[in-house]
Design the sequence.
């Protein structure tokens, strides 16, 4: 229990660090030196020191947005088995709770954007509401896959200790599909290239960044921290799946986990460096691919794995 | 049952007195609302005690010595009675200020009369214990609600809505009559008890016929066509009652007939899950395309009926595949969703009613920024929206969570049950996402941002009785969401009345689930408090200023530039264009500096369209040819009746 709480705390603390790795990778591909790895901490500290300017159009919902989006991200991390350790809390069906708490965070992020009366933020909000619909369907398809294999409906049953390795032994080939589907969800839910470009300069083409245009100071810091945590959540899941190995050496599992995590951020960085954002109307097709992958994986388990 | 009938009598008395007092408008409203709510409260109290003690009570009256009117109040009836009386209670209170500035006192009086009849007949429908009683109550319910739909009968649109509703409820009733006819034909008995002993083919036929009949009342796709017309036409508290509980009598019918037939084939579950998935997904897609706030809410009823059907379908699949846990999870989740939906949907209709009442428009894109002047309405509407999206810690999440868990139990089963479970789970997930998109649209466009037209400026939210009802319903959404234990007990008591052959429903596994929901909600609220504390500390002693919204470099923004509801939904609707074709009308742009243009869009409901093409038009052209039968001579009409009876005598 104690190590789980420490890990949870470490996750929140180190999430900004890992996100900075993506920036470093992108800088490397651009032939630049890039910002320091601590850049996100500097930004957060800077933001926390500032005051805020609120739009005259906004109401209290605008201020609730950052609180609930960070609150939901932190809550979700409490149910996440980090580095193979059991999570702080776990119950039958916790993954459904986790997905819906994220939905609550999304509701308020969108509501905060609509509060500003800005046409650009409305545009971002409409896209933020759209793509996760498909992601949610994929997530539940993946859950069906996991349930079929393990008979459990909680994150700790899939990602604690040796269970990822057991999953590979049980259904290696379909699990490859699942990893790919997870990766597409990661890119979509966290507004990365090729779904959204966090570094674009035109508000018209943004999704997540345009929704937080009017937030400033500590409010913006809460939102940023929340999105680092969210990315960390998905990366941890994929990290445990791509490097499912444990180690008898004390701390060995932890090192493997960190390596997996670094690998995920590295791949995100590479994808962001080598491909461009899709046209908005192509994005749904990209996201639907994840559903198709998860669906095929499940169908395969139905026939071949008893 | 005498207490139950006392409650019914008080309600009908309230409605009848208002007819007498039509001249003293204020006095009439006070007395009518008082008696209606007193009767509902008494009925609610009585139903709750009966449900908690899981008691069963019957009463029988012999009517003209031919048919006996029999009533029975078991767990299932009591459960629906709780929803009916609770929603009617708050709708009655709400109506006090809603009908305040009604121009026509007589019309208000007639409305209270039919309103009381509607409440009473709904209560009688769910307690009826034989076919005659059931059909009698059912028809009274359909007729009284028809008169409420055409409350505002000066508008041609409302008359058309009323007519459509009339046709659908009677075609639906014909199917139920046919099903009961089959049952009577085999057993020669009007009692419900005889249905269990029918042959299987008759059972199948009865199940399908009653499914169509009750489905058209409940608003199951494709029999939902009347719903988006009738609900906006009625006054808002009537929409709340119709959408919140009246359509649930259809659900009651389906589940009651299922229990009576004692017919456990997988087909029943499959029909319900497929119908539920289609209604659920299409309902919310069409809702997303609406421009009229009450029509949008009406389509959401179609969606939620879909969720309920999927819950019940999972329950039936659980029964047919011998998985009691899955069966009880599905049934109790579906039934709890009946209660939950009646609470949040009536809350939303009341909120929409307040908006329509104060601004005079139902068009979403004409509104905006209302929460600044309508704080209570806005807040309660947001709570209702979160609940209908199934988000924790609100009540919609609890019932969907139960249905999910039940669905996942089916994933471990064999092929047909497996496919059905996948269908239900994925549909629920998609519905959740779409509902979130739809309600962020409503909340964002109606209540947030800046007023788009004059109508939305300088509104107020006077009317304490309306606010009280909304606040209590919103509080119920939160209480059920955080402490669902007692409410799951209620729905489990209703499930045990189904007689599924499980000796006793064990409470422990379900209490563990509700315990987990409470636990998760508490953690989440705790974390929120923590983040709020951090935010409070971060803002201590900081300078906070206000300024205009960042216009991305554009310096002359107007309120008309805000994203509209139509554009918000456009890209999502594009994904569903095969089932929800979008019709757009706009002028061609002329010249280099076009001055004025206009744009109209309309999402076509494919059920509406194809019913017109395949059924309405052929029937119309057939009847056109038979017009000569109708010549207005009353003697010949009597001749027709005689002839028909004589012909029928040959067959008996």
Sequence:
């Amino acid at each position: 229990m104690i190590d789980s709480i420490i890990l949870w705390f470490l996750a929140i603390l180190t999430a900004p660090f890992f996100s900075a790795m993506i920036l470093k990778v992108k800088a490397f591909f651009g032939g630049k030196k890039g910002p320091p790895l601590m850049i996100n901490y500097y930004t957060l500290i800077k933001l926390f020191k500032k005051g805020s300017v609120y739009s005259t159009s906004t109401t209290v919902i605008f201020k609730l947005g950052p609180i609930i989006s960070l609150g939901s991200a932190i809550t979700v991390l409490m149910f996440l088995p980090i580095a193979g350790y059991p999570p702080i809390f776990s119950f039958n069906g916790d993954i459904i709770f986790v997905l819906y708490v994220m939905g609550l965070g999304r509701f308020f992020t969108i509501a905060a954007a609509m509060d500003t009366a800005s046409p650009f933020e409305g545009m971002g909000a409409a896209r933020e509401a759209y793509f996760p619909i498909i992601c949610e369907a994929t997530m539940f398809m993946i859950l069906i896959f996991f349930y079929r294999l393990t008979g459990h409906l909680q994150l700790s049953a899939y990602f604690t200790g040796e269970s990822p390795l057991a999953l590979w032994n049980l259904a290696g080939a379909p699990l490859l599909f699942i990893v790919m589907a997870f990766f597409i969800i990661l890119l979509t839910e966290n507004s990365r290239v090729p779904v959204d470009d966090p570094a674009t300069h035109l508000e018209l083409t943004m999704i997540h960044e345009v929704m937080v245009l009017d937030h400033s100071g500590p409010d913006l810091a809460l939102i940023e921290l929340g999105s680092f945590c969210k990315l960390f959540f998905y990366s941890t899941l994929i990290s445990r799946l791509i490097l499912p190995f444990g180690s008898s050496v004390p701390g060995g599992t932890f090192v493997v986990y960190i390596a997996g995590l670094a690998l995920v951020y590295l791949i995100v960085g590479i994808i962001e460096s080598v491909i461009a954002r899709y046209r908005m109307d192509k994005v749904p097709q990209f996201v639907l691919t994840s559903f198709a992958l998860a669906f095929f994986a499940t169908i395969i388990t139905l026939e071949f794995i008893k | 049952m005498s207490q139950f009938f006392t409650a019914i009598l008080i309600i009908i008395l309230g409605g009848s007195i208002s007819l007498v007092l039509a001249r003293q408008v204020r006095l009439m409203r006070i007395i009518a609302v008082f008696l209606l709510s007193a009767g509902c409260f008494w009925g609610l109290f009585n139903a709750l005690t009966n449900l908690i003690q899981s008691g069963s009570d019957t009463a029988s009256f012999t009517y003209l010595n031919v048919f006996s009117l029999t009533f029975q109040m078991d767990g299932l009836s009591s459960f629906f009675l709780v929803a009916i009386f609770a929603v009617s209670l708050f709708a009655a209170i709400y109506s006090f200020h809603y009908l305040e500035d009604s121009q026509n006192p007589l019309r208000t009086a007639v409305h209270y009369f039919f309103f009381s009849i509607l409440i009473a007949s709904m209560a009688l429908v769910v307690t009826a214990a034989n076919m005659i009683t059931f059909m009698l109550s059912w028809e009274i319910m359909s007729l009284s609600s028809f008169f409420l739909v055409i409350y505002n009968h000066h508008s041609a649109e409302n008359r058309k809505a009323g007519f459509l509703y009339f046709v659908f409820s009677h075609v639906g009733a014909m199917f139920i009559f046919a099903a009961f006819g089959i049952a009577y034909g085999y057993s020669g008995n009007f009692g419900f008890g005889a249905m269990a002993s029918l042959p299987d083919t008759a059972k199948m036929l009865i199940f399908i016929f009653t499914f169509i009949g009750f489905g058209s009342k409940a608003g199951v796709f494709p029999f939902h066509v009347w719903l988006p017309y009738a609900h906006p036409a009625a006054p808002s508290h009537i929409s709340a009652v119709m959408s919140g509980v009246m359509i649930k009598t259809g659900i009651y019918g389906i589940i009651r007939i299922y229990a009576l037939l004692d017919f456990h084939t997988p087909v029943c579950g499959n029909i319900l899950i497929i119908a539920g998935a289609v209604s659920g997904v299409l309902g919310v897609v069409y809702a997303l395309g609406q421009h009229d706030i009450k029509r949008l809410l009406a389509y959401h009823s179609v969606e939620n009926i879909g969720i309920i059907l999927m819950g019940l379908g999972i329950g039936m699949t659980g029964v047919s595949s011998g998985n009691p846990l899955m069966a009880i999870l599905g049934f109790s989740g579906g039934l709890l969703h009946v209660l939950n939906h009646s609470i949040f949907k009536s809350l939303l209709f009341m909120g929409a009613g307040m908006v329509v009442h104060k601004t005079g428009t139902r068009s979403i894109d004409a509104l905006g920024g209302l929460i600044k002047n309508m704080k209570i309405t806005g807040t309660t509407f947001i709570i209702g929206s979160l609940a209908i999206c199934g988000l924790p810690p609100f009540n919609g999440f609890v019932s969907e969570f139960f249905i999910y868990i039940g669905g996942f139990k089916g994933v471990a089963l064999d092929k047909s049950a497996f496919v059905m479970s996948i269908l239900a789970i994925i549909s629920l997930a998609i519905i959740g996402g779409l509902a979130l998109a739809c309600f962020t649209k409503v909340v964002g466009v109606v209540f947030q941002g800046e007023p788009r037209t004059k109508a939305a400026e300088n509104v107020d939210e006077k009317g304490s009785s309306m606010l009280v009802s909304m606040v209590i319903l919103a509080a119920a959404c939160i209480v059920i969401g955080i402490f669902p234990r007692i409410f799951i007990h209620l729905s489990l008591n209703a499930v045990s009345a189904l007689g599924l052959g499980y000796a006793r429903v064990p409470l422990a596994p379900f209490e563990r689930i509700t315990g987990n929901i409470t636990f998760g909600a508490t953690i989440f609220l705790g974390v929120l408090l923590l983040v709020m504390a951090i935010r409070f500390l971060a803002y201590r002693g900081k300078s906070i200023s206000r300024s205009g919204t960042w216009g991305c470099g554009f310096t002359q923004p107007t309120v008309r530039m805000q994203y509209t509801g139509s554009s918000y939904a456009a890209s999502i609707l594009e994904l569903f264009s095969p089932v929800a074709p979008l019709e757009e009308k706009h002028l061609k742009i002329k010249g280099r500096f076009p001055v004025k243009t206009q744009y109209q869009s309309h999402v076509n409901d494919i059920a509406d369209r194809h019913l017109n093409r395949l059924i309405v038009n052929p029937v119309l052209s057939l009847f056109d040819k038979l017009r000569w039968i109708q010549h207005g001579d009353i003697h010949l009409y009597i001749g027709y009746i005689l002839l028909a009876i004589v012909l029928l005598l040959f067959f008996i």
Notes: The mean pLDDT of chain B is 92.
